[in-house]
Amino acid sequence: MIRMDWRRKHVLGLADFSTEEIEFVVDTARSMEEVLTRDIKKVPALRGKTVVNLFFEASTRTRTSFEIAGKRLSADVVNFTSTSSSVAKGETLLDTARNIDAMKPNIIVMRHPASGASHFLSRHVSCSVINAGDGSNEHPTQGLLDLFSILKAKGKIKGLKISIIGDILHSRVVRSNLHSLGRMGADLWLCGPSTLLPREMARSGANLTNDIREAVRDADVVMMLRIQLERQKTAYFPSIREYSRTYGLNRGIFSLAKKDAVIMHPGPINRGVELSDELADSAQSIILNQVETGVAIRMALLYLLAGGHNAAH
Ligand code: CP
After folding, report:
1. Which superfamily does 19-135+291-312 belong to?
2. Residue 111 has pLDDT above 90, yes or no
């Protein structure tokens, strides 16, 4: 078991995580997975603690996963959605956050369409803040659960060819994965049309290509991303049909990957656009394993931020 002196108050992005911290969170998540195998999947670790899920953007996986994670640890979990709150009457993020902070939660988990929103929040509240996705900046818990899912499927990260294909430009998942998978020594490939593939990402050490065949050839992991039409302010490709023909993953293209390669996707999937139905539901797909792993990762972070300081486990 890894031991470390955990002093972090917020989880805003993986950019400032050390390799040791990433390993410690994953190791803690392994302990949490054991809880999830029990008949009664609940421990009293966060009894008396309050977690507020503050979501200004739609979410299925992340919000539900944080709610389940908090409840598994016996925290009181409160869900806030902007459409049914005073945000709909014009209240600002700052006023909303200060009012929630005044009710003395231990942790606010926030998703927001603006990049940097979680950093802003963390400067104005006294509780801990976890970034559940801020614009196209970072999605740190997704980065950690992706790393843990690959570790479970492959036993290692170092040296694996991991290809991420799709709307790289608008993807907060990619930006977190560049820090987590990149730091762990993966051979990272980013692939998409030039308009959605920022050249400066090569500075992270990742390989960039517009050719899906080059990305998939001999890959150990192929991670597909959705086209984020809600963040696109201009036309980045002629049509969804053409995009799908050029950058969609189907059985023929996937046959170029290693025989034991796995397929990932953070969700939500646009079936038939970036990924064929057949592959999404195939034995090589670990997409639902990612979702399952997400609960353990989020339990680990809630535990470490609210209850497990200086934890040795
Ligand atoms: N992966 C992810 O963030 O999914 P949701 O948008 O459903 O939370």
Report:
1. Aspartate/ornithine carbamoyltransferase (3.40.50.1370)
2. yes
Mutate to test the pocket of ligand 1, among 56, 60, 174, 228 (most ligand atoms within 8 A of CB): 60
Atom number, ligand 1, closest to the C-alpha of residue 133: 3
Residue 312: is its pLDDT beyond 80?
no
Query: Which residue shows structure tokens 């730091």?
Result: 183
Contacts of 17-26 with CB under 8 Å at 24 or more apart are 17/140, 17/179, 17/180, 19/183, 19/184, 22/144, 22/147, 22/180, 22/183, 22/184, 24/304, 25/144, 25/297, 25/300, 25/301, 25/304, 26/144, 26/147, 26/148, 26/151, 26/297, 26/300
Ligand 1 centre to CA of 243 (Å) is: 22
Distance CA 307, CA 107 (A): 11
pLDDT at 48 over 80: yes
CATH topology of domain 140-282: Rossmann fold (3.40.50)
